[in-house]
Amino acid sequence: MNASAAHAPDHDSSGPSGPAPGPDWRRFAQDHWAREPVVVPGGRPLGLDPAGTHALVRDAIAAAAPRQVRLATADGRLRDPGALLPGPADPDAAGYAGRLAREPRLAGDGWLLTVADPLRHDFTLWSRVRDVLAGLWRHVGQAPLPVTAELAVGDRHHSVEDTAAPTDTAALTWVLDGELTVRVRPEHTGTEYVLHARTGDLVHWPAGGTHLDHRPGRCTTLRLSVPARTTSALPFVAGTLTDLVRERAGRSGAPPALPHPLPSAPDGRLTAPPQLLAPAGLLTDTLAGTAPERALLTRWAALRSAAGLEPAPPRRPGIRLTPRHRLRRCAEIVRLPRDGGPAVWAANGHAWTARPAGADAVLARLRTARHAVAVAELARAARTAPDDPELLTLLGELYRARAVTAAPEHHA
Known about the structure:
By secondary structure, this protein is of the alpha+beta class.
């Protein structure tokens, strides 16, 4: 058995809420990333105090689909947690835990509440986590596949030994409130690490091993899962190809039906029915074209702009831009060139095709401007009219993706 913790200096987690300096990513990358399980003290880089943490849990559950929320005890998952989930009547985490402790359905047992994709409803927190990830990627290289998040709050809960299975993802787990103990068993080593973490600490373990969480008391965590195996790309690529094949096939009416009895050759042999061969042909035709590369390029641009963190918050509603509106860039705008067509732009997890032909000049002006730039000035840079529909669509995409702010001229 091995106890492991980073030797980085500890940071006081008391004081006002707000983002604190994150881990020393350079040292973390050199000494620990993808090498060994470790605890890294780091203050509160996500800027959440206990009240903010409880608000995040409550808001994430309110915004999540039912399938994304799980409430479990040592006996298994509750099928319909309903009123057992935190709501407006639970002012803080202690009050919520006290209510569950009195709940007859739980009979005093420990519990664990998890929410998948908990950041999608909160752009400010999502972008904060994205920026923390981007700091790590500068030292280890950006993950090429989606990084997913899970929020978990529990009290006196222990992972069951039988549920532990090797994972294909590396873990970055922030303890937002409380204390957490994780037993990690890296693959092919026979060694077990016991990691003890408290509020503000980051817990990391590489892909391939198994882990068991232990919450001795009330504890809230945010876990990011980073795909780390070659085969991790298969679902991502397969999903992209499935979408392309469906677009190529169009919408059909009734599902295909096979005749009865099934036709066979004179010697009794069965052949693959056309209803199966046709989709296979569509897939072959799709792979022979350029659509898969274009689709994957667009997905990659979106991932690059999000530091891999998916899903991104939805675009905000658009506004009607006029030549007098003044735009100021407030986020990174990723540009990926594309052979034989316009470039792909992306910001904050959303990607789109950049038209008109002068789009590159628009981007250059936005990137270098020290002050807000009028739409009319951007039109001159692109050598087009200020009411050019393609230009306004391009700028509208930037605004909806929160890559620029927009104000009328008299607000500049």
